[in-house]
Amino acid sequence: METFDVLIIGGGAAGMSSALLFGSAKNKPFAEGKNIGIIMHQKASALSSALFNNVLGIKPGTVGKEILESGKKQLAETYPHVKQIEKEKVIKVEEKEDEVVVTTNKNTYTAKNIIVAVGPANTFNIEGLTQYVEPHQKLPVEKNRIQLKNSDHQVTDKIYVAGVLAGHVSQLPIAMGSGADVAATIMRKWNDNKPAMVHDSVG
Ligand SMILES: Cc1cc2nc3c(=O)[nH]c(=O)nc-3n(C[C@H](O)[C@H](O)[C@H](O)COP(=O)(O)OP(=O)(O)OC[C@H]3O[C@@H](n4cnc5c(N)ncnc54)[C@H](O)[C@@H]3O)c2cc1C
After folding, report:
1. CA-based end-to-end distance of the chain
2. Is the CB of 43 under 6 A from ligand 1?
3. Which residue among 93, 110, 193, 201 is least packed, with the fewest CB closer than 10 Å?
4. pTM of the predicted model, to two decimals?
5. Is the CB of 50 under 6 A from ligand 1?
6. In CATH, what class is 2-190?
């Protein structure tokens, strides 16, 4: 059974943004030897049907499908040490004393921390997480969306939530920022509680 330091669940906007930030910390001492994975399920992403004209840095007219593909490619080419787990869907999460056991339709993994970034659909049925479900606080009631109870993205000691499922409004930059924020929070823990940022610069 493969063990991760952090396992991200969901290959949409928040999940991939989180994975990219973790990946970019590869040369930082606090990230040395960390095993990072993402369950790269994309079929149910809101990005599949979206068209973007209002997001900084994304060329107007870009369709969300392109972002799903290019995000996966960017992660694979720039940070290949981040393991992308394809064609699996999480069905169960069990929090134990020292780890979280994640069961998909094909495999079982353990992780010290997980980030749940699967979007706000009210069909959410991951066993072991349904007790944290509550009505979404920022989306229109008639949309019948859900969020996971959390405090600044933290659901329990080992479980984090990101993206619209964390209670954010559904806008791409907010979902991406939420995923990155959770990565920075977990990396801060790895860094003896000192702020952990990764900045590349010119020259
Ligand atoms: C039609 C449409 C148009 C939009 N237009 C805009 C716009 O113009 N501007 C803007 O800013 N925003 C827009 N958005 C919103 C934006 O796309 C979302 O806010 C953003 O994608 C949410 O990111 P997320 O990571 O929370 O969820 P998602 O991107 O939906 O990602 C969730 C991921 O979790 C995966 N998943 C689900 N269940 C499981 C499971 N059990 N196990 C593993 N993985 C799972 C899914 O396959 C998916 O990849 C639009 C959305 C739609 C639907």
Report:
1. 43
2. yes
3. 201
4. 0.98
5. yes
6. alpha beta
Residues with Cβ within 8 Å of 201's Cβ and at least 6 positions away in sequence, in order, are none
CA 42 to ligand 1 center in whole angstroms:
9
* Cα–Cα distance, 162 to 158 (Å, whole number): 13
Pocket of ligand 1, candidates 172, 176, 178: which has the most ligand atoms within 8 Å of its Cβ, to mutate?
172
Q: Which residues of the chain have pLDDT under 70?
A: none
Residue 38 contacts residue 83 (beta carbons within 8 Å): yes
pLDDT at 1: 81
H-assigned helices in the chain: 13-24, 64-78, 172-190
Would you say the CB of residue 117 lies under 6 angstroms from ligand 1?
Answer: yes
Q: What's the Rg (C-alpha) of the chain?
A: 16
Query: How many angstroms separate the CA atoms of 190 and 188, rounded?
Result: 5
- Within 8 A by CB and 6+ apart from 46, the residues are 12, 13, 64, 119, 164, 170
The CA-based angle 110-78-8, given to 5 degrees, is 25
